[in-house]
């Protein structure tokens, strides 16, 4: 009898109670890094609740795709790798949480690799030692209001006016993203939602956005008129509506951008005073003074979304002329610096005998000098220092950029990629994950370093899934990395296809592979893994 009682006691404590598990779930999803990602919180909550309801046998890639990510009924998880990639991110986030904010949690939620069915266990020495949090516990203060700024409409068919409206959208996002009180989705993501015809409530459901900003623009020869609405997305109720009218000059536009940020951020975050003081002390030095400069800056944003060689050359040449007339325009200088760095690091429209890296560095320094409060300037300067292999200066500039604007997705992904290249995977992947949270629709280059981390861990199927979730046809690093991963998986036909694609876009890559690793400052483990993988794939690396 004694033995039977002992067995029962062990069985009772082997698995936490349902309430303890739900308490653990509330703690995880209310803290960083899950509080910042509606998609991952929804994913984790779904698989936990389905398991507690006794439906774990129904949890699979297809069910998750339909119920969590709202995929169509013809969704095939064997082809669409989104669910597997998000599951990989979720496992990494859980690990981060239990090493940091959840280090003393009594119950741990585990999602085993190769399965979407979670497991639950008491952590060592903490059997039922902490009371369950009440179901109506308030969310911690680090849960920030989230905003989707939809592309501003223009009441004009003129090509230049549409770029003006796009630029105003981009700058409004960048202005709002400066505030740590807010979480602002990227324009790439919100633009896709508009193209798909989603209404405000659907934006809330798809992204988890608390608020939506909509705007319209009228521009004449003398005046700019902008109407802005702030909408509570869950209720689809207008919180405020405001009209602005300013002279049709760059200064007038910058005033509108600042006023929109002040109005929206102050109303949402409930910290009108600090935000107002932040904007009022923002210096106006370094702003473009010419419409031509403003125009080319926002053509740059269009280029950076797709990295088109044709757009690269057009914008590089246009900005060069604009800067001659507007030589202290910080954003123009920063954009030009990035274009020159792309000429160096991606060989985009390379000019023989032209030192694009050094000229890019000089433009970035001028941008930071023109406007010491510009995150964009310090983003460009950090990238220039990185490629010059001045790593302490890179880190100082990167942290300055992040302090000035902690919420710009492309910048987070750019800097995260550099940190990963240097071997600081924790810092780098955290920045990339945050970028993906802010921009669920994003360029495929965001996925390159997470895929390489999987490969270094021997997780080659996950590495392939990561890259194929956001394909980058024509990008030589994409084809080179896939060749490596597929060779490790002995998928010869697919590997040969990627090799042909690599040959087409970079015929002498084998000769220059080591130089490419040096351009990107890859640490020894990653460079050695990549070179060995390429040789296994059949690339005769010199």
Commentary on this structure:
With 542 residues, the protein is of the alpha/beta class. The relative contact order is 0.07. The strands form 2 sheets. Strands 3, 4, 5, 6, 7 and 8 form a 6-stranded mixed sheet that branches. It has helices spanning 2-14, 18-30, 38-52, 61-67, 82-99, 159-177, 187-195, 200-207, 250-269, 272-280, 291-306, 309-325, 330-345, 356-370, 375-387, 391-404, 409-421, 425-438, 448-456, 460-468, 476-488, 492-505, 509-519, 524-537, and strands at 107-110, 119-122, 146-149, 153-154, 183-184, 211-219, 223-232, 237-247.
What is Rg? 25 Å
Distance between the termini: 73 Å
Percent helix, as a range, is 55-70%
Mean pLDDT score: 85
Sketch the major β-sheet: 6 strands, mixed
Which of globular, elongated, flat, extended, rod-shaped describes the shape? globular
Oligomer: single chain
Low-confidence stretches: 1-12, 127-142, 270-284
Secondary structure category: alpha/beta
Let me know the number of strands. 8
Residue share in β-strands: 5-15%
Q: Treating each run of at least 4 consecutive H or I residues as one helix, how many helices?
A: 24
List the helices and strands and how they pair.
Blueprint: H1 2-14, H2 18-30, H3 38-52, H4 61-67, H5 82-99, E1 107-110, E2 119-122, E3 146-149, E4 153-154, H6 159-177, E5 183-184, H7 187-195, H8 200-207, E6 211-219, E7 223-232, E8 237-247, H9 250-269, H10 272-280, H11 291-306, H12 309-325, H13 330-345, H14 356-370, H15 375-387, H16 391-404, H17 409-421, H18 425-438, H19 448-456, H20 460-468, H21 476-488, H22 492-505, H23 509-519, H24 524-537
Parallel strand pairs: 3-5, 3-6, 4-6
Antiparallel strand pairs: 1-2, 6-7, 7-8
Helix pairs in contact: 2-3, 6-9, 6-11, 9-10, 11-12, 11-13, 12-13, 13-14, 13-15, 14-15, 15-16, 15-17, 17-18, 19-20, 20-21, 21-22, 21-24
């Amino acid at each position: 009898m004694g033995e039977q009682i002992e067995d029962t006691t062990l069985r009772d404590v082997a698995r936490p109670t349902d309430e303890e598990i739900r308490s653990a779930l509330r703690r995880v999803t209310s803290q960083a890094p899950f509080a910042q990602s509606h998609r991952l919180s929804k994913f984790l909550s779904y698989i936990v609740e389905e398991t507690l309801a006794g439906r774990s046998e129904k949890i699979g890639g297809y069910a998750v795709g339909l119920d969590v990510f709202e995929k169509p009924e013809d969704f095939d998880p064997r082809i669409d790798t989104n669910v597997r990639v998000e599951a990989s991110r979720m496992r990494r986030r859980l690990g981060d949480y239990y090493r940091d904010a959840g280090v003393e949690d009594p119950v741990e939620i585990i999602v085993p690799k190769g399965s979407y069915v979670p497991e639950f266990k008491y952590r060592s020495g903490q059997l039922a030692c902490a009371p369950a949090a009440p179901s109506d516990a308030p969310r911690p203060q680090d849960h920030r209001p989230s905003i989707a700024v939809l592309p501003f409409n223009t009441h004009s068919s003129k090509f230049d006016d549409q770029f003006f409206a796009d630029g105003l959208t981009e700058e409004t996002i960048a202005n709002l993203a400066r505030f740590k009180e807010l979480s602002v989705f990227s324009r790439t993501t919100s633009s896709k939602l508009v193209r798909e015809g989603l209404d405000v409530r659907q934006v809330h459901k798809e992204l988890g956005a608390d608020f939506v900003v909509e705007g319209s623009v009228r521009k004449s020869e003398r005046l700019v008129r902008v109407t802005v609405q702030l909408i509570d997305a869950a209720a689809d109720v207008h919180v405020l509506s405001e009209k602005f009218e300013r002279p049709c000059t760059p200064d007038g536009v910058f005033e509108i951008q600042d006023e929109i940020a002040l109005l929206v951020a102050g109303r949402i975050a409930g910290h009108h005073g600090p935000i107002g003081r932040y904007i009022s002390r923002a210096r106006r030095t370094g702003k473009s003074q010419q419409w031509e400069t403003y125009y080319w800056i926002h053509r740059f944003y269009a280029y950076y979304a797709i990295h088109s060689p044709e757009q690269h050359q057009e914008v590089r040449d246009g900005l060069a002329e604009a800067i001659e007339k507007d030589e202290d325009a910080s954003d123009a200088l920063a954009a030009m610096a990035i274009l020159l760095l792309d000429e160096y690091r991606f060989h985009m429209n390379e000019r023989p005998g032209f030192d694009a890296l050094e000229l890019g560095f000089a433009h970035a320094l001028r941008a930071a000098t023109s406007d010491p409060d510009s995150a964009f300037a310090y983003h460009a300067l950090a990238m220039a220092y990185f490629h010059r292999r001045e790593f302490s200066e890179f880190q100082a500039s990167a942290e300055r950029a992040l302090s000035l604007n902690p919420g710009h997705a492309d910048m987070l992904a750019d800097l995260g990629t550099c940190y990963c290249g240097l071997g600081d995977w924790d810092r780098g992947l955290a920045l990339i994950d945050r970028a993906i949270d802010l921009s669920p629709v994003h360029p495929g280059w965001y996925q390159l370093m997470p895929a390489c981390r999987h490969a270094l861990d021997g997780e080659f199927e996950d590495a392939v899934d990561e890259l194929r979730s956001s394909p980058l046809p024509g990008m030589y690093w994409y084809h080179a990395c896939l060749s490596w991963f597929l060779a490790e998986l002995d998928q010869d036909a697919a590997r040969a296809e990627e090799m042909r694609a690599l040959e087409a876009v970079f015929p002498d890559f084998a000769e220059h592979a080591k130089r490419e690793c040096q351009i990107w400052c890859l640490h020894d483990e990653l460079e050695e893994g990549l070179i060995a993988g390429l040789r296994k794939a059949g690339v005769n690396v010199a």
